[in-house]
Structure formats: structure tokens, C-alpha cells
Write a structure and sequence with these properties.
With 192 residues, the chain is mostly helical. The chain has helices spanning 2-14, 18-27, 41-45, 50-74, 79-91, 104-114, 116-133, 136-152, 160-173, 175-182. The chain is 70% helix and 0% strand.
């Protein structure tokens, strides 16, 4: 019962589509009709409204931090199950016929909740890759790969298998971006 409740609450928290909600409230738009059609912060930034984009990013991070931190302190043995449930909620939200975002901001919230050093390391990696390439998707994919590699070589951390699974999931959510990157058709992103 306890496990079912934790999975359900984590999934439902993760499935809150802040990108869709905020663009409807503030921009009177359906984010699914903009850019890539994705509900995540990167696509919200494509509306040209940076404030709504960054608010989406912040809330997508926080919707992971809230349940995962709680589980970490009160049910530490279930923190990875909660983390995965939050992530899957964002990517496959029940409210949107299981068509959600790519999960990067939510993953960032998971990293900060598990160990803030991992969150900082992810942001640092993402910024370097983005600065060099100007591709948000490439920064997300490579940074999510760097995390399990970092953990593998650092004995202070555990459960690299979870982070390998997360990398595979993020690679899956970015499969169309990968095709566009290979074909040199991927759009560059402005974050400022």
C-alpha cells in the first residue's frame, strides 16, 4: 500500500503540465501548437516570453523536488522509485493522453533532491555543451550521459544503474532531436 501510494503521488506530481497551464493563462496559447509542440520549458521559451519559459522551468524542477525530497527523508529506500515515477509522470502525463515533455527539468529536480552536487554538475555540463553548440537538446543528452559516468568513477555516489536508466529515457525522449542533429536540421536555442 505504501509503495503504491508513493508511486501514485510521485507520478501525479510529475504529470502536472506547467508549460501548458502557464502558456494558456499568460499567453492565451496552447503550447502544443508552438514550435516542437512539446510542453517543456525549452519549447515555452520559443514563444518569445522568457518569463513564462523560466517559470515553467522552475516549476518543472520543483514538481520533482517536492515528492523526491520528502521520500528521501521519510522513505529513503524508495527514493529511486519515487524519482522514476515523477519523471514518467512528466513524460507520460495521464491528463494529456500520455504525451508530455522530455523530462530534463524534472530530471534536474531529481538530481538536486538526491544529491545537490549532481544537480550542479549537470547544470555545469549542460552550460558548457550549450555554450559550444547552442543546441539545448545536445546539452541535455550529453549531460545526462555524463552523470552516470561521473558516478561510476566516484565512489562517494551509488546506484549508477538508476542514472543509466535515466540517460536511456532522456535519449528516448530526444529521439527526434537526435535525428535532426544528425541531419543538421536541429534548431538552435536562445536562453537569454
Amino acid at each position: 500500500m505504501e509503495l503504491t501510494l508513493i508511486i501514485s503521488i510521485s507520478y501525479l506530481m510529475g504529470s502536472i503540465p506547467f508549460g501548458l497551464i502557464l502558456t494558456k493563462i499568460f499567453l492565451k496559447k496552447d503550447i502544443r501548437d508552438v514550435g516542437s509542440g512539446n510542453i517543456g520549458a525549452t519549447n515555452v521559451l520559443r514563444t518569445g516570453n522568457k518569463a513564462v519559459g523560466y517559470l515553467t522551468l522552475t516549476l518543472d524542477v520543483l514538481k520533482a523536488v517536492t515528492p523526491v525530497l520528502y521520500i528521501k527523508f521519510y522513505f529513503p529506500e524508495l527514493v529511486y522509485i519515487s524519482s522514476l515515477s515523477v519523471f514518467l509522470g512528466h513524460v507520460f502525463p495521464i491528463w494529456l493522453k500520455f504525451k508530455g515533455g522530455k523530462g530534463v527539468a524534472t530530471y534536474l529536480g531529481i538530481l538536486f533532491s538526491i544529491n545537490y552536487i549532481l544537480g550542479i554538475f549537470f547544470i555545469f555540463s549542460w552550460l558548457i555543451i550549450f555554450y559550444v553548440s547552442k543546441y539545448s537538446s545536445l546539452g541535455s543528452i550529453l549531460s545526462s550521459l555524463i552523470i552516470p559516468i561521473f558516478i561510476f568513477f566516484n565512489s562517494n555516489y551509488e546506484n549508477e544503474y538508476f542514472f543509466i536508466i535515466m540517460f536511456v529515457l532522456i535519449l528516448f525522449t530526444h529521439r527526434e532531436n537526435v535525428k535532426r542533429l544528425i541531419n543538421k536540421e536541429e534548431s538552435k536555442t536562445k536562453i537569454y
